[in-house]
Specification:
- Helix content is 44%, strand content 15%.
- With 261 residues, the chain is of the alpha/beta class.
- The chain has a single domain, classed as 3-Layer(aba) Sandwich (Rossmann fold), CATH 3.40.50.
- A 7-stranded parallel beta sheet has the order 3-2-1-4-5-6-7, with helices on both faces.
- Helix 1 links the parallel strand 1 (7-11) and strand 2.
- The protein is globular, with a radius of gyration of 18 Å.
- It starts with 6 loop residues before the first strand and ends in an 8-residue tail after the last strand.
- It binds nicotinamide-adenine-dinucleotide.
- Residues 11-12, 14-18, 36-38, 41, 61-64, 89-93, 112, 116, 139, 141, 192, 194-195, 197-200 line the site of nicotinamide-adenine-dinucleotide.
């Protein structure tokens, strides 16, 4: 077991990629903290994990609120004694053509997808430093590493705020890695391509979701959509000691997007 006795906070852990990573971590021996802003989904997830015999703690936390991320860190230390791993996974997308996007769209996306990463990392850093041990894994996106086709292939287009936030996560990863590395804390990043989760449908009709998946199958080098298990393997790598001498890095897990290889 690669995460035996580790305590891992996963933001946005009650759905999609975060929930999948949480389940994977518990199978590797970790106690997971499902930190999310959706209390019902937290309860469902914690109940489901507990029934399977996994160690899971629920924590309601809006990552855009610094006092809540600090409270989360305090609560986890009080309940579990330490914080070994933070996966900054909570995220939202709002696609709208650049000329139509308003400042509320911009703030909503930047607040969750970038400021949330900053607040959560800042809230756990003192504990990780005190332990001389920590693993922070940030979730960016293929849209943070290259621009997507606009308004085609089931993509509504207009990912300016999302792409800017996700590119910011990659640079934040590098700067945090430099600041926290001397204290035994690694900071790395995973940039997923297309994976089917609730977020895929948040700005698309069901027909657009299918069109998008078909487009991706045709355009990624590996010719298929990846599984959440394949994605969580990369998250687990950075969260475990398999990556003990790796920091400041971003790994694309996207089947090889041909437009940027
Ligand atoms: N699914 C994909 O294809 C894909 C691709 C690239 C990147 N990503 C990124 O992966 C991450 C997870 O996405 P997903 O596909 O699992 O989406 P999802 O919608 O299934 O899950 C996101 C979770 O984040 C939570 N959340 C949203 N705002 C929050 C806030 N302010 N505070 C705390 N929790 C909040 C939601 O309640 C939800 O449980 C996101 O950062 C997303 O941008 C996803």
């Amino acid at each position: 077991m690669r995460l035996k006795d580790k305590v891992a906070i996963i933001t946005g852990g009650a759905s999609g990629i975060g929930k999948s990573a949480a389940e994977r971590f518990t199978r590797e021996g970790a106690t997971v903290v499902i930190a999310d802003m959706n209390p019902e989904a937290i309860k469902r997830t914690v109940d489901e994990f507990t029934e399977k015999g996994f160690n899971a703690i629920g924590q309601v936390c809006d990552v855009t609120r610094r006092e809540q991320t600090q409270e989360m860190a305090r609560e986890v230390v009080a309940q579990a004694g330490r914080i070994d791993i933070l996966v900054n996974n909570a995220g939202i997308s709002r696609y709208r053509p650049f000329t139509e996007a308003n400042s509320e769209d911009w703030d909503a996306v930047l607040d969750v997808d970038l400021k949330g990463v900053f607040f959560c990392a800042q809230s756990v850093a003192p504990q990780m430093r005190a332990q001389s041990y920590g693993r922070i894994v940030n979730i960016s996106s293929a849209l943070g590493t290259g621009a997507a086709p606009h308004g085609t292939a089931g993509s509504p287009g207009g990912s300016s705020a999302y792409a800017a936030a996700k590119a910011g996560v990659i640079m934040l990863t590098k700067t945090l890695a430099r600041e926290l590395g001397p204290d035994g804390v690694t900071v790395n990043c995973v940039a997923p391509g297309t994976f089917l989760t609730p977020i895929s449908a948040s700005s698309r009709t069901p027909e657009q979701v299918n069109e998008h998946l078909e487009y991706r199958k045709k355009t990624v080098v590996l010719g298929r959509i990846g599984t959440l298990e394949e994605l969580t393997s990369a998250i687990l790598f950075f969260a475990s000691d398999d990556s003990s001498y790796v920091t400041g890095q971003t790994m694309s897990v996207d089947g090889g997007r041909s437009d940027r290889m």
